[in-house]
Amino acid sequence: MHMPLEDTLGLNLLAANQHQAEHNHEHFQAWNVLCLNLMSSPGAGKTALLERSLPALAANHKMAVLEGDMTTQLDAERLEAVGIPVVPITTGRACHLDAAMVSGGLTLLKQRLDPTQLDLLLVENVGNLVCPAEFDVGEHHKVALLSVTEGDDKPLKYPLMFRQADVVLITKVDLLPHLQVELAAIRRNILSINPNATVIEVSALSGEGLDVWHQWVRQALADRTAVSSAAARAADQSPALATA
Q1: Rounded Cα–Cα distance for residues 142 and 37 (Å)
Q2: What global pTM score does this model have?
Q3: Burial of 74: CB neighbours in 10 Å, binned 0-12, 13-18, 19+
Q4: Most buried in the list 58, 124, 151, 222, measured by CB within 10 Å?
Q5: Predicted local confidence at residue 244, as pLDDT
Q6: How large is the average pLDDT for residues 233-244?
């Protein structure tokens, strides 16, 4: 029994992407940079979230953004105005960023700054609830956004993204009084798909929940630093163990 040609091509593409994603991850490890991949449907509020979060996090951390969009650089221009280095990645007809595109973005980023001086790299993926979840880019954590305006059924209808996410941000909660949707139902459906996900309710407009989100990022940075320090200590001790 033979697999359909389309399935074979899909597997080959995903295997090649995974190989490049692992290569990207090796760079992040060598640079000691935490990479977060932000994914959502169009209009869920990724750029608005970053406009509020970047200035707050930049007080203590150096960061940059790889900004994915299909055609324009409008979102990249919005984030550049915040004062954070941004590299736009225009995907054309592709509905997601893949590892090769992110690798190209990293090459452009290295022309502007020394990546070893960064603490955090944020990848804002193309707005799509399906394709971005299929393609790892080498990130340490996946962050999914779901706006309350999308209703409570999206985690059930598009489970892969929410199943893979380490943290899910329920956005635009300031609009809840105007919608016939229950926050508890959204949270319940997310956790039914991924019981281990951290779920945070936020509003980029009112600022609600942003402190909790920022604390999650700071903790992820602290955990990354601790892992790197432990690995460095182990490497320093290994020659001594070998000669003991």
Answers
A1: 5
A2: 0.90
A3: exposed
A4: 124
A5: 46
A6: 62
Q: Within 10 A of 48 (CB to CB), how many other CB atoms are there?
A: 19
Q: How far is residue 148's CA from residue 181's CA, in Å, rounded to a whole number?
A: 7
Cα separation, 229 vs 213, whole angstroms? 25
pLDDT tens-digit map of 20-68: 999 999 999 999 999 999 999 999 999 999 999 999 999 999 999 999 9
List, for residues 185-202, the tens digit of each pLDDT value.
999 999 999 999 999 999
CA atoms within 13 A on the CB side of 129: 17
| pLDDT range class, residue 77, cuts 50, 70, 90 | very high
Question: For the chain, first and last CA: distance in Å?
Answer: 56
